[in-house]
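Example record used in the benchmark description.
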Amino acid sequence: MSSLYLLNKPFNVLPTFTDDQGRDTLAQFIDIPNIYAAGRLDYDSEGLLVLTSDGELQHRLAHPKFKLPKTYWVQVEGSITEQALEQLRQGVELKDGLTRPAKAKIIEINEPWPRTPPIRERKNIPTSWIELIISEGRNRQVRRMTAAVGFPTLRLIRYAVGEWSIDNLAPGEWRKEGVNLPPLPKRANHRSNGKRSKTNGRSNSSQPRRR
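Model output (C-alpha cells):
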C-alpha cells in the first residue's frame, strides 16, 4: 500500500520544499522526507496538493493521459452567465489549443476561509463562485479558461483531485491516507517476443493460399 499526503496549500506558497528567494514553501507546513507533489498548483492558487514518495503513483496522478478529474472552486469577476458556463463545458480555444470538455456550474458558497491578502474587489462589480472540473493540467489553465469567456479569475481553490479533497483541512493542514495502486491494464498483444505464433510451422494468417 502506498501513502498519500493531502495538504491544503495556502495562498502564496510554492509547491516545493526549497526556494532561493526566501518565499514560503511546503517545508513550513509538512515535514515528511522524500515526498513530492503529484501535479502542479501555482504559487498564487490555494487548496489540495497531493504528495507522495511513490514514483508510479505520482506519475498516474499527474499525467494527463490518465484523465484524473480535478475540481476547482473559482471566484470570478462579474455575474457569470449560462452562455459562459456552456463555453467552459464545450471547451475553450486557448493559445495552446482547445481545452477538453469540462463540467461547470455556479455554486452558492460563503468565503471558504479568509485569504491573506484578500482579493482586489472593485466597487459596484459583483463576483461569482463556480465549480469547474477538468481533466487536464495545462499551465494556469483555469485562469486562462475563465478569462477567455470574459470572467477573469480572482481566487482559485483546488477542492479535489479524483476522490481526494480538502474536506476537514484548514489552510496549512494535512493528513495521510493509504491507497492501493491497481495494476495498469495490459495491452492486447498477439505476438510473442515480436514473432508470429505458428502452428505446425505455418503462420496462423487468415490469408488465402496461393495456387
